[in-house]
Amino acid sequence: MKRATCAALALALTAAAPARAEAPETTTDLKCLVFAMGMAGNSDPSKASVGTMAALYFLGRIDGREPKLDLEKRLVAPDLQIKPADFPSLGATCGGMLTTRGNDLTTMGQHFQAAGK
Asked: Domain boundaries in the chain?
């Protein structure tokens, strides 16, 4: 009986515990995903293509870090609503992340080419 009471208490405490806070990097990646999804819907095919690739990149980062994240719920959260005034800073932040990683891949490719692989 005592064991059952302890188990019930432990379960109640676990259920009452607040959800683990989202990593700041995840919040940034979510904002970049929303921004990229907006670009993917652009009527200019080149901007839409960049937006699609960026959305997949940020989705991969999110899924890799937070695989159980309720993405649908998070994407409609108030903190992810983007205003036109946010576009320049998001473009710089998100674009900078993509550029950095793209440069890393270019450098790796050059190393592989030099090594004959």
From this structure: 20-110
